[in-house]
Structure prediction request, 107 residues.
Amino acid sequence: MTRSDLVEELAARFAQLTHRDAEYAVKTILDAMSDALVRGHRIEIRGFGSFSVNRRPPRIGRNPRSGESVQIPEKRVPHFKPGKALREAVDAKTAELDAKEAKGHKA
Prediction:
């Protein structure tokens, strides 16, 4: 799902929202989440998951073209951990789809 898909879904579900309002709502939420992560905060959405910032320590890497060693600096990267409800919902739906697919191949 892309950002524009999310805007379309929001506008379709809530008739009182115009496309522009839905776009603004999605932009506002994503900006607030980005700002929180930049400040080092953790975001937790119950039933969905949590976003946090992980530290990747500095390391030595290799340039694949020349083979020479390259120093890779420390990085801070966003990390998403799905919540239990989301994990279970995805697992149940994929198991259901796999069962339908297996049933279709037997016929």
